[in-house]
Amino acid sequence: MELRQLLPEERIYCGEPMKEHTTFRVGGKAEYFLVPSTVEEIEALIRLCKTYQLPYLVMGNGSNLLVGDKGFDGVILRLGKEFGKIEVDGRTRRIKAQAGALLTKITQEAAEHSLSGLVFATGIPGSLGGAVAMNAGAYGGEISHVVESVQILTVDGEQKVFTKQEMNFGYRHSVVQEQSCIVLSVDFSLEDGDREELFSKMRELSARRKEKQPLEYASAGSTFKRPEGYFAGKLIMESGLSGYRVGGAQVSEKHCGFIVNTGGATAADVVAVMRHVQKTVMEKHGVMLEPEVRFAGRF
Ligand SMILES: Cc1cc2nc3c(=O)[nH]c(=O)nc-3n(C[C@H](O)[C@H](O)[C@H](O)COP(=O)(O)OP(=O)(O)OC[C@H]3O[C@@H](n4cnc5c(N)ncnc54)[C@H](O)[C@@H]3O)c2cc1C
Questions:
Q1: CA angle 51, 57, 58 (to 5 degrees)
Q2: CA 294 / ligand 1 centre spacing (Å)
Q3: Triad 126, 75, 185: Cα angle to 5°
Q4: 219 lines ligand 1 (CB under 6 A)
Q5: Where are the domains of the chain?
């Protein structure tokens, strides 16, 4: 197949188990799991998917993905370390980073150069592409606050620069989810900061996460979005669901906002826990919890 003319053999994986590539450690096989190393390869692969009408999904670090047990019939494009370049310009207080760079790495680099604005991202285990797609945020900050512009590959295969306004950022939302476009790189505009203070704040946030979040288990972070006026974890706890379990999936006893994989969970287990949580919280509090994790493939 043409695929082998577009990508070296060692970057093509057929029937790749997605549990190996998601922080949930859950998910069936991707028909094709491809690891492009250049933008030209991404463009060519998308064209190929369109020609053969193969569904495709671009992923970063797999830290917000729940892939179904029956796998993904199509192509998963993983943007990895070849898209990990980070360039810092301390003078103009700008950083340009590629979509595959880890958010935590960019945060470290910013602090090294005494640039402030990204400390909130300490401990978010995603890639930059995933962080922009999701408008990732924590502790009062979110990626949209520091993004100046985003280099995008549109669904028609055109490279464009989107301004922050064009990104249509909202709570855990961006234009990427509306238009299925691909984030290639991002320009950040940051503020001057004090290196020692930035690192001290980062250490504080890491410690806070370790204390409050079940980081000892596989998960995809907060399972549900924060409903307006409430906290999902608190609603779940007050609904008596702490520790509720189906198979290997469990509402974390440490932080009810997380569903964790205690070992051997299937996507079906996770979905069963999610459904029960949604139903119970609706009955007890009249609030419909909306998933934050992104579903992919067949369940
Ligand atoms: C322990 C833990 C703690 C977490 N804490 C937080 C938190 O505090 N705040 C928060 O917001 N999230 C948190 N998360 C969730 C997750 O880390 C973020 O949503 C992160 O931004 C996802 O990035 P990713 O690269 O892993 O994306 P993936 O999981 O790979 O993908 C997520 C979505 O982004 C899309 N996507 C990925 N890369 C691209 C790209 N280059 N172009 C277009 N679309 C793309 C995918 O198609 C998918 O729809 C946490 C997760 C874990 C496991």
A1: 115
A2: 9
A3: 40
A4: yes
A5: 3-81, 82-197, 216-296
Q: What is the CA radius of gyration of the chain?
A: 19
Q: What is the pLDDT of residue 81?
A: 84
CA angle 227, 59, 164 (to 5 degrees): 60
Q: Count CB-CB contacts under 10 A for residue 263.
A: 11
79-97 pLDDT, tens digit per residue, is 978 999 999 999 999 999 9
* Neighbour count for residue 91 (Cβ, 10 Å): 6
Q: Which CATH class is domain 82-197?
A: alpha beta
Q: Are strands 12-17 and 29-34 parallel, antiparallel or unpaired?
A: antiparallel
Catalytic residue among 116, 222, 239, 252: 222
Of 42, 63, 179, the one to substitute when testing ligand 1's pocket (max ligand atoms within 8 A of C-beta) is: 63
For residue 1, is pLDDT > 70? no
**CATH number, domain 216-296:** 3.90.78.10
88-136 confidence digits (pLDDT tens): 999 999 999 999 999 999 999 999 999 999 999 999 999 999 999 999 9
Q: Return the CATH fold of 3-81.
A: 3.30.43
Burial annotation 160-199 (CB, 10 A radius, 16+ → b, else e): eebebeebbbeebbbbbeeeebbbbbbbbbbeebeeeebe
| 268 CA to centre of ligand 1 in angstroms | 21
Coil, strand or helix at 260: strand
Bridge partners, residue 141, by sequence? 138
171 or 80: whose pLDDT is higher? Answer: 171
> Which ligand 1 atom is at minimum distance from the Cα of 58?
47
Q: Is 172 a catalytic residue?
A: yes
Same fold: 82-197 with 216-296: no
| Model pTM score | 0.96
